Amino acid sequence: MTKDASPQVEGDELPEGWRWTSIGTHYAFKNGLNKAKRFFGQGTPIINYMDVYGNQRLTAADVRGKVTVTNDEADAYSASQGDAFFTRTSETMSEIGYSAVLLEPIQRAVFSGFVLRGRPRNNELLPEYAAYALRAREVRKQIESRATYTTRALTNGGSLSECTFPLPPEPEQKRIAQALSDIGDLIASLDALIAKKRDIKQGAMQQLLTGKRRLPGFSREWGTVPFRRTLHVRHGKSQKEVEVEGGKYPILATGGEIGRSNTPLYDKPSVLIGRKGTIDRPQYVEIPFWSVDTLFYTEILPGYNPKYIYYTFQRIDWRGYNEASGVPSLNSKTIEGIEVEMPDETEQVAIVGVLDMMESEIAAAEAKRSKLAMLRQGMMQQLLTGRIRLV
Fold first, then answer.
1. Which of 5, 17, 102, 241 is 20 to 30 A from 281, alpha carbon to alpha carbon?
2. Residue 150: pLDDT band with limits 50, 70, 90
3. What angle do CA 137, 32, 75 make, to 5 degrees?
4. Among 337, 287, 286, 289, which residue's Cα sits nearest to residue 307?
């Protein structure tokens, strides 16, 4: 086994023909372009921070930013097919050094000062393989451990150059990249399906929850009522005295579950909405729960379906009811005063049945996507270290 860099983990052995190598063996680094704000919005394509962070395999379709540059700047900060880009600075260490490899040419493209460009020194590392190898878990650990932090997290070309990874022969690079690309394409197709199903559900909610479209068998006129006729808004309470590790019931905050308790604050189906902070993400709970003091919960009155109220809450622009100049806040009286169109309970239940079916289809697609993503992560770990070989 030949080596041109120290292995990531002392004593690691690689398959015959593989070797340890460093990022700096294959890339020469350069900082990106910095321009005043007035130059952005038109001109040549520019690879920005989020383009790199969100796409390990970078294509022309992923690059939407524009910037006006001189010919000298276009030459000095060019982005060419095969270049690797890394996020250079961030608020957190965990976002430093994320890589993206440009897999197709983009005419006259440049790159931002918030990223670093790695230009290939040789042809030993295939771009399609590098797109995965440079994001491998062990590489990410090395990048984070070498980053610095003052007011922001930072990395640089020298630090990235020292990070090491296993390199297989070119034919195996191609096979590994193709296998990971195939499962990536499956995930992308599921993402498109989920987005389509969400759009369909959103359209159905717009039609069904306003009475613009009626389900078969329903024709009774709807009424306009304030929420106070359908529910009572209640305040949550501090969880400090009831929180128990491994408790039966969830303790809920604006972002979801934050702990467990054996003492529920409320034990009937309820719709919850943030009182402070995140005020635009309603939650629906059917089991007993505890709500913290930044999260309202509701007592749903007879004649009204809790899940129907939840779907109605999802359509409301809650930030439009914000009553604070600092941290977003809602008032219980404001919520109870909002007027909505409401059918009778029988039609509410029927509408909920349709929307629940759509939500179940989305959840099933998301579960499948999650499994594929976990599979790809496991495959990357095994294939990129040679622990599993492709025939």
1. 241
2. confident
3. 125
4. 286
Strand (E) or helix (H) holding 296: strand 295-300
Fold adopted by 169-215+345-391: Helix Hairpins (1.10.287)
This prediction's pTM: 0.79
Q: How far is CA 140 from CA 27, 126, 177, 264, 301, in A?
A: 17, 19, 18, 42, 52
Per residue in 231-251, pLDDT tens?
999 999 999 999 999 999 999
Residue 183's pLDDT is 95
The CATH fold of domain 19-167 = Adenine-n6-DNA-methyltransferase TaqI; Chain A, domain 2 (3.90.220)
Q: Please give the Cα distance from 62 to 68 (Å, whole number).
A: 19
Domain ranges of the chain: 19-167, 169-215+345-391, 223-342
Nearest to 57 by CA among 79, 82, 80, 33: 82
What end-to-end distance do the CA atoms of the chain give, in Å? 21
Q: Say which DSSP state 132 is in.
A: H
**DSSP-based helix, strand, coil % in the chain, nearest 5:** 40, 25, 40
